[in-house]
Amino acid sequence: MNEAKLIHGIGRSGDISAVQPKAAGSSLLNKLTNSVVLDIIKLAGVRTVTNCFVVPMATGMSLTLCFLTLRHKRPKAKYIIWPRIDQKSCFKSMITAGFEPVVIENVLEGDELRTDIKAVEAKIKVLGAENILCVHSTTSCFAPRVPDRLEELAVICANYDIPHIVNNAYGVQSSKCMHLIQQGTRVGRIDAFVQSLDKNFMVPVGGAIIAGFSESFIQEISKMYPGRASASPSLDVLITLLSLGTSGYKQLLKERKEMFSYLSSELKKLADIHNERLLDTPHNPISLAMSLKNLDENNDAAVTQLGSMLFTRQVSGARVVPCGSVQTVNNYTFEGFMSHTNDYPCAYLNAASAIGIKKQDVDIFLKRLDKCLKTFRKEVKKEETVDEISNSNTGTEQLED
Ligand SMILES: Cc1ncc(COP(=O)(O)O)c(C=O)c1O
Fold first, then answer.
1. From the CA of 254, how far away is ligand 1's center (Å)?
2. How far apart are CA 77 and CA 230, in angstroms?
3. Ligand 1 nearest-atom number relative to CA 208
4. Ligand 1 atom 3: the closest Cα is on which residue?
C-alpha cells in the first residue's frame, strides 16, 4: 500500500541509488529518473557523460557531498582551489566539507572577469598537488564574471593529478556551458559536475544532479550519502520531463537562447538612452550586466534604491551590484562582494535569460526598469534646479554683502 503511494523514498541506507525490493515503486521511479536525466544531460551537450543521479539537496550541499567523497581518496589534502565566484553557497560548500578554500581572484579582460589560469597553477606549485583536494570551478554565473576557462583548468588538473569538480548550477540550459564541460573532459580532467534541478528544470527547490564520466566515482558519491532520501525532487523532475518530452525541453532551450539575444539588444538600447552601457561580456551565455555608473556618481544611495524599487515592482530576477561592498563569510572577507572581484570599475545591474522566460517577461522588465531610471533622472534634475536656485541666492547674498 505504502509502496504504491511512493512513501518509501529513494535508496537504501548504504546507497542513495540502490534498489529497495520492499519499495518497488520508489526504486523504479529512482532508476527511471536517473536515466531520463542522464539522457537530458547528453541532449543538452555533454554527450560522453556516463553516470548521474538525482540527490535531494540543492547545489551547495551536493558539491559538499562531492568534496566529502574525495576526502577518502586524498587524505592529506586540505585545500580547494577556487576561482572566485561571489555566491555564498559555493564558498560554504567547501567550508561545510571541512576544507580551506584558496580563493583565486579573477582577472579583468575588457569588461569581463575571467579565470586567472597562471595564478591557479602558481598556487598549485606553492601548496603541493597532494595537499589539494580538488579544483572547484564554475560555469554559469552572473556577468561580468564569465564561465571559468574549463579546458585550461581541466588540463592543469590532468597534469598535476588533481580532481576537478565543476559547479554547473544553472548550466544545463546553456549549450555553451555544456560544451565547456564536454571540451574540458575531452582535453583534460573533470571528475564530477553538479547542476540544480530548480534552476534548469523549473521544479521546486530541493534537488540537484551529480554527474560525471567515471561510473565508479559517481557511484562512490551516491554511496557517501548517509541513509535513504526524499523521492520528491526525483518525482518532480520526472513528471516535468515526461510531460515536456525531449522536444518540449529542446524548445524551451531554444526559446531561452532567443530571449537572451532579445534581452541583450533591448537592454543595450535602454542603457544608451540612460547614458549607461551594456557591459561587453560575450562569454556569458545567460547573464548580462548594464553599468549604473552615472546613476552611482550622481547619487550614492541610488544603486541600492534602484534594487529595492525593482523588487517592490516585482522584478525579482534583476539584481543591482554597488561598488565597494564588503562581506565576511566564515571568517573570509570579500572586498567588492557580489561583483566577483575586489574593485570592479563601476556599479551595475544584472539581468538574465533563464529557462522558461517569455518575451512578455523581458518587455515588462524593461518597461519597469526604464520607469525606475526615469524617476531617478527626474530627481537628479529636481536637485540640480534646487541647487541652481540656492546658488543664485547665495550669489545675491554675496553681492549684497
Ligand atoms: C553559481 C551558483 N552556484 C550555486 C548556487 C547555489 O545554489 P543552491 O541554492 O542550489 O545551493 C547558486 C545560486 O544562485 C549559483 O548562482
1. 23
2. 32
3. 10
4. 169
Q: Which of 63, 66, 87 to mutate to test the pocket of ligand 1 (most atoms within 8 A of CB)?
A: 87
Q: Per residue of the chain (401 residues), what is the pLDDT tens digit?
A: 444 567 888 888 878 888 888 888 888 999 999 999 999 999 999 999 999 999 999 999 999 999 999 999 999 999 999 999 999 999 999 999 999 999 999 999 999 999 999 999 999 999 999 999 999 999 999 999 999 999 999 999 999 999 999 999 999 999 999 999 999 999 999 999 999 999 999 999 999 999 999 999 999 999 999 988 999 999 999 999 999 999 999 999 999 999 999 999 999 999 999 999 999 999 999 999 999 998 888 777 889 999 999 999 988 888 999 999 999 999 999 999 999 999 999 999 999 999 999 999 999 999 999 999 998 877 766 766 666 656 655 433 333 33
3-state helix, strand, coil in the chain (%, to 5): 50, 15, 35
Whether the CB of 197 sits within 6 Å of ligand 1: no
CB 196 within 8 A of CB 170: yes
**CA torsion, points 294, 295, 301, 307, in degrees to nearest 10?**
-140
CB-ligand 1 contact for 141 (6 Å cutoff): yes
> Residue 235 C-alpha to ligand 1 middle, in angstroms?
21
Is there an atom of ligand 1 within 6 Å of 287 CB? no
Ligand 1 atom index nearest CA of 61: 11
